[in-house]
Design a protein that fits this description.
With 160 residues, the chain is mainly alpha-helical. Helix content is 72%, strand content 0%.
Length: 160
């Protein structure tokens, strides 16, 4: 799965972006295409600053009211990705970048992405169970005994 994602990210998407830039350049001209790319880069930086400030205010409001800022943090990440996509030269990246600045779309996407990320992280935790606030045994405590069944599966290490 990772190999496919890397192949798409570094081969297919740039090839598609190049093709689209060539086709747009043929339709509207080379300098117009360059102007489009510069304008989208400027738009990305302006929108990123503006929307990013709004997301930071939302995170602050969430924290003040005692709500979890997790969705707002994911929204902030989407704003950052949108800005980067707009600054990156390309037609497809510009379209996706602009879509990420549409607040209702971003608000509906954030909880879904958070759920996917949490599922991915919990599924790849390698059998570890993490507890908030638990830093392990205190100084001088004996290490826990290794569980032979888990050790055979690669989850325990005798020294941990």
């Amino acid at each position: 799965m990772l190999a496919l994602a890397l192949f798409l990210a570094f081969t297919v998407i740039p090839a598609l972006e190049t093709y689209l830039l060539i086709e747009v350049g043929r339709q509207i001209g080379g300098w117009s295409t360059v102007g489009w790319l510069v304008a989208m880069g400027l738009l990305g930086s302006v929108l990123g600053k503006r929307a990013g400030s709004g997301v930071l205010r939302q995170i602050s409001d969430d924290l003040r009211s005692g709500r979890s800022p997790a969705d707002s943090v994911v929204e902030g990440a989407l704003v950052l990705v949108g800005s980067v996509l707009l600054v990156t030269p390309g037609i497809l990246s510009d379209v996706v970048g602009v879509l990420l600045f549409i607040q209702p779309l971003r608000r509906s996407l954030a909880p879904r992405l958070k759920a996917v990320a949490l599922g991915w992280l919990s599924g790849r935790s390698g059998g570890l169970s993490w507890k908030v606030g638990s830093m392990g045994p205190g100084p001088g405590a004996a290490p826990p005994a290794a569980n032979p069944e888990r050790l055979a599966r690669g989850f325990d290490h005798p020294s941990s």
